[in-house]
Amino acid sequence: MADREALAWFSCFRFDQPWTRELEDEIRERLLDRVIDGLEVVGLWAGGELCGVAAWRIHGSTDPVLCRGDIVAVDNARRRKTYGRRLKLEMMMAATRAGAAAISSRVHRDNVAMRSLNEQLEGVEEDDEEDPNYVLCVIPLGVSERL
Ligand SMILES: CC(C)(COP(=O)(O)OP(=O)(O)OC[C@H]1O[C@@H](n2cnc3c(N)ncnc32)[C@H](O)[C@@H]1OP(=O)(O)O)[C@@H](O)C(=O)NCCC(=O)NCCS
């Protein structure tokens, strides 16, 4: 119940980052309900405050097994303190444990922070053919030095 309350106050919306509006609604209102459908969700807490969340899904029936990274979001008041990196690394470790060969995610083209973080983690980008505003990023797993 504490998690639900903290999620309801989670704040990542910024006017200059329009994709964060839908993301914040998703985190506040729907995230925990999606766990029942197989979404994995973790929260990063410090001093009793929820600082960030990450969510992903393992696609175990594909060959190779793949992980779809759904969300990495840090509370507005806590950005640029390494929480985003730690959450993405946690996702990478969990996906590796589940046997996934890579993590793929969609990122808004203007999302400099997430694209830079993915690049740091050796992500490779390609255009999203379904939406020119987005890129698809694939981070190969199994290279242990990053984890
Ligand atoms: C993307 C996001 C999760 C990054 O989290 P964060 O905790 O602020 O970032 P970190 O402190 O872990 O930074 C890790 C790296 O990300 C990159 N980065 C983070 N913020 C950045 C910014 N404002 N500009 C450029 N690069 C940035 C840098 O490469 C940084 O490494 P460095 O500090 O060594 O340069 C955060 O900006 C966020 O929550 N954004 C809104 C939600 C969102 O768009 N999520 C992605 C789609 S689900």
Structure description:
Helix content is 29%, strand content 31%. With 147 residues, it is α+β, with helices and mostly antiparallel strands. It starts with a helix and ends in a 7-residue tail after the last strand. The protein has a 6-stranded mixed sheet with strand order 1-2-3-4-6-5, sandwiched between helices. It has one domain: Aminopeptidase (3-Layer(aba) Sandwich), CATH 3.40.630. The site of coenzyme A (COA) has 22 residues, from helix 2, strand 3, helix 3 and helix 4.
Topology of this structure?
Blueprint: H1 2-8, H2 19-30, E1 40-46, E2 49-59, E3 66-74, H3 83-97, E4 102-108, H4 112-120, E5 124-127, E6 134-140
Parallel strand pairs: 3-4
Antiparallel strand pairs: 1-2, 2-3, 4-6, 5-6
The structure holds coenzyme A.
CATH architecture: 3-Layer(aba) Sandwich
pLDDT < 50 runs, ≥5 residues? none
Number of domains: 1
Rg from Cα: 15 Å
Q: Note the overall shape.
A: globular
Largest sheet, order of strands side by side? 1-2-3-4-6-5
Order of helices and strands: HHEEEHEHEE
Q: In percent, how helical is the residue content? A: 25-40%
**DSSP helical segment count:** 4
Mean pLDDT value: 95
Number of strands: 6
Q: Which ligands, by name, code or SMILES, are bound?
A: coenzyme A
Which sheet architecture does the biggest sheet show? 6 strands, mixed
In percent terms, what proportion of residues is strand? 25-35%
User: In angstroms, what separates the terminal alpha carbons?
Assistant: 31 Å
CATH topology: Aminopeptidase
Summarize the structure.
This protein has 147 residues and is an alpha+beta fold.
